[in-house]
Amino acid sequence: MSHRPPARTGPATRALALAALLGATLLGCGSDAGSGGAPGGTATGSDAPIVGASTEPAATGAPAAQRIEQVNETMRGTPFSGIGTTTAFEGAGLQRIVWNPDQGLRISYTGTAGGDMYCKDGVTYMSTGLLAESFRTRGTGITVPERLADVYVTTRSGQGCDAYFAVPPSGTFAQEKDTTVEGVPARAIVASAGPTSDTYFVSAKNPARLLKMKSVRDGRTSSTTYVDFGTKKDVTLPSPDKTMTMEQFRAQVDAG
Predict the structure, then answer these.
(1) How far apart are CA 86 and CA 92, in angstroms?
(2) Of the four listed, 80, 111, 185, 227, which is most buried by Cβ atoms within 10 Å?
(3) Which candidate, 81, 73, 82, 64, places its Cα nearest to that of 173?
(4) Hey, CA dihedral for 221, 225, 226, 232, is it positive or negative?
């Protein structure tokens, strides 16, 4: 977090102090997502076999670190889109994802918990309505002043924006879940921690890509499919006059 812990301990203040921790859950990412692989580069050769891998499907429980690194490397450097649902909060409806390596990430939510989130250079921009809904889902309600309805709150995560779609390096193959996604053979990689379980479906051949992800969190389920690889779409961040830091937002909410 980029701001000092608040001195007050009211419900709104306690909730806002957690805001920097919420972003990584919006896509249902694994607990250690984003920590694997090296930046830059894109795998090539659509029919090439997986480097260093057997032609036979990997056994359930086998480490998948090498394939995960290849997938994360490709996804970081490749524009793509995605559509699905989220376990981050109720009432979000569909989430639509656009990743442009040069311009950043945009996630748009429709439904009763509609709103947008952006990420660029490790800074997350979350609409105030979406932020409030995230807190409500976790049992703490805050009231966003009307004057802040079109404002985005910024937090610095300390990691790249690819953390929102990276496969955690701790994942292991789950052969019994191997499938096809939009006609493309896919290997299943699972990562679990407590009540959270994520299944990542990655391409069985190169280019190494994340094709689909399914998540279960505290009884809620979500599924996101990734498409339009290589197709660049514009991502335009909120203007500076429509953003404020978490500390500034906290002060505004506390002031009423």
Answers:
(1) 7
(2) 80
(3) 64
(4) negative
Q: Which two tokens stand for residue 156?
A: 């610095």
CA distances (Å), origin 148, targets 6, 111, 127, 168: 21, 20, 9, 35
Q: What SS3 class is residue 174? A: coil
Average pLDDT, the chain: 79
How far is it, in rounded angstroms, from Cα 15 to Cα 10?
Answer: 9
pLDDT digits (tens, 9 = 90+) for 42-76: 333 333 334 333 335 566 667 899 999 999 999 99
Instruction: Phi first, then psi: give them for residue 208, nearest 5 degrees.
Output: -70, 120
Task: Tell me the residue type at 111.
Answer: G
pLDDT 10s digits, 234-255 = 999 999 999 999 999 988 887 6
**CA 82 from centre of chain:** 11
Burial of 234 from C-beta contacts in 10 A (0-12 / 13-18 / 19+): exposed
Dist CA 242 CA 256 (whole Å): 19
pLDDT tens digits for range 160-193? 999 999 999 999 999 999 999 999 999 999 998 8
Q: How far apart are CA 3 and CA 112, in angstroms?
A: 30
Peptide bond into 207 cis (omega under 30): yes
Per-residue pLDDT, 220 = 84
Q: Token pair of 104, please?
A: 């950043």
pLDDT in tens, 117-165: 999 999 999 999 888 888 777 777 788 888 999 999 999 988 899 999 9
The CA-to-CA distance between both ends of the chain, in Å, stands at: 23
Residue 219: which region, alpha, beta or left (left: phi > 0; alpha: psi -120 to 50)? Answer: left
